[in-house]
Amino acid sequence: MRILLTGATGYIGKRLLPVLVKNGHHVICCVRDVNRFSVPDSIRSFIDVVQVDFLDASTLVNIPKDIDAAYYLIHSMSTSNKYEELEEVSATNFKNVLSGSAVKHVIYLSGIANEDSLSKHLKSRKNVEDILGDATFKLTTLRAGIIIGSGSASFEIIRDLVEKLPVMVAPKWLSTKCQPIGIRDVLIFLEKSLMNEKVFDQNFDIGGPNILTYKEMLMEFARFRKLKRSIYTVPVMTPRLSSYWLYFVTSTSYNLASSLVDSMKIEVVCRNSRINELLDVKPDGYLEALERAFTKIEGNQIVSSWKDSQVSGVKQFNISDFIDVPSFGCFKDKRERVILSKAATINKIWSIGGLNGWYYADILWKIRGFVDKLYGGVGLRRGRTNPNSLESGDALDFWRVLYANKEEGRLLLFAEMKLPGEAWLEFKIKDNKVIQTATFRPHGLLGRLYWYSVLPFHGIVFKGMINAIAKGGEEA
């Protein structure tokens, strides 16, 4: 079958794509920016990539008409405070364009919405379900709560809290109940629902066998990691304070933290497990899902991370708009060093950031990350998805990978930190030299003042970094 996959660059979409290809389907991947989508060579011949923004009706002509089924995996919770409006427009455009196609079945991954009083986030998800339900195609809605898997937003937040805080003074919503589900089981439900008449025009809650409070989830995680943790809840923490608490302690963006806090006051427990019998699925328990997640992490096999999605940054942009580094009106810090081994130097460059740090004066990088957080930026907490590989679109601490080509020996990063301007960091291997160039395009007088204020630190940070990279290549 020909399957339309929206959200192909997202956490779920990246993992669902190889499953669909393995099952013999030809997949049409909808992406807002084709340069952010790195297609594995092993499946390239089984997919088509089309550039579509469901908020821009003029791009919908790129969607082919001869599709059999589609997955709707689009969410805007991290993008804007007005995400309800964006999600409504996106769902309406999706419904309208597919109503004029041959599509028979659409599967929508939503959130559990069983309470009378829903959060803004869950109301928006329910509204999308209602919009998609008023169409000519058959709709199946799978409603999930907390998804546990390597790289998922929920998992990474739990991991940040438990591994960084021996003692937590937390909001009272930690007593709210939820029913987590492992990412493997989410993919199984998405796979087995496809063109299955048993699930047409129905909605189902999907969850694991364990109903836990958020506090119990944190404590179970701590026991799994053999960490001694204490959690105390207080009734006086406002939603705004709770959002800031999550934002500063974890790697989440403030918009996402605010939406999550709003939803964490609502119980997300499945009504029943009827779909388990319909599709013959037996979901893993919470501890089994944790074990699977850490098996992937320890084996460096993380397929996707929410941090690599476009909405994890504070800037929304197309890579093609920034891949050509400007020179006019820019400040540059360019340094060169002779190297002995091109391959070893490239490996050193490709390992930068995350747990490896930036090779010199890491304390200054951490201070810059903390300041960025204070001003609403992403900080350094995003790290990197895989310790050995980098692809266009990946998050790398407070940078975004624009271009990564090992054969060419070029890595280009764009700053997603809060800045009075735009910044690039580029590494090139040429003529037995490593060339490191930091470029800053200032916005007005404030941008120029910023550059000169940090210039003394550049002499420390950038000089030390290129020396370490060149030396690392020599030692190997």
Your description of this structure?
It is a single chain. This protein has helices at 11-22, 83-99, 120-133, 153-164, 183-193, 214-224, 239-249, 254-263, 274-279, 286-298, 342-350, 362-374, 444-475, and strands spanning 2-5, 26-31, 47-51, 69-72, 105-111, 138-144, 147-148, 167-171, 177-178, 181-182, 202-206, 212-213, 230-234, 331-338, 395-396, 399-405, 410-415, 421-430, 433-442. It is α/β, with parallel strands linked by helices and 476 residues long. The protein is built from 13 helices and 19 strands. The protein has a 7-stranded parallel sheet, sandwiched between helices. Strands 14-19-18-17-16-15 form a 6-stranded antiparallel sheet. The protein has a two-stranded parallel sheet with strand order 7-10. Helix 7 packs across helix 8 (254-263). Helices cover 36% and strands 21% of the residues.
Radius of gyration: 23 Å
Overall pLDDT confidence = 85
Looking at the structure, what is the overall shape?
Answer: globular
Helical residue percent?
25-40%
Strand percentage lies at: 15-25%
How many helical elements?
13
Strand order of the largest sheet: 3-2-1-4-5-6-11
Biggest sheet, open or closed, and with what strands and sense?
Answer: 7 strands, parallel
Euclidean distance between termini CA atoms? 49 Å
